[in-house]
Write a structure and sequence with these properties.
4 helices, Non-ribosomal Peptide Synthetase Peptidyl Carrier Protein, Chain A, mainly alpha, elongated, two-stranded antiparallel sheet
């Protein structure tokens, strides 16, 4: 029973909710950046390089083949192609660089905001009860 209450308290903390929202946003941010790279950035680069589709760039180590059929019977099974897909790897690296730069900019803005908050002078501390009492006594003596 105690562990369930402890878990419930943990889940109800604001930081856990903030973390969950951040994770969801990061997932979709990554999907947007991946689409940006694959669908917007890479096609013009491929066109400039002679109509190359980066996602199709690969080094084929072993050609694949389709299955050979004789009626309904398979004479030779299909052989999968063995290839190193370096074009997809290039797309992934570019996606990583864009995401890393975006995160860098967010962290930099956050740090600048924190620095500005720290630079603001703190309001002077309220006088202690003793000082307030002595001030009242002084004021009464001046009137008196």
């Amino acid at each position: 029973m105690g562990m369930i209450k402890e878990f419930k308290d943990f889940i109800n903390k604001g930081s856990v909710i903030d973390m969950a929202v951040g994770l969801i946003l990061a997932t979709y941010f990554g999907a947007i950046i991946k689409s940006l790279v694959n669908d917007i950035i890479m096609p013009p680069i491929g066109m400039l390089l002679g109509g190359v589709d980066f996602s199709q760039l690969k080094f084929v180590m072993k050609e694949g083949s389709a299955a050979v059929m004789d009626g309904d019977a398979i004479v030779t099974p299909a052989i999968s192609e063995v290839a190193i897909s370096y074009g997809v790897f290039i797309n992934t690296i570019i996606t990583f660089i864009i995401v890393a730069f975006a995160i860098f900019m967010v962290v930099k803005a956050y740090n600048n905001m924190k620095k500005k908050e720290e630079e603001k002078p703190a309001p002077p501390p309220a006088p202690s009860k003793e000082v307030e009492l002595l001030t009242e006594i002084r004021d009464q003596l001046k009137k008196g």
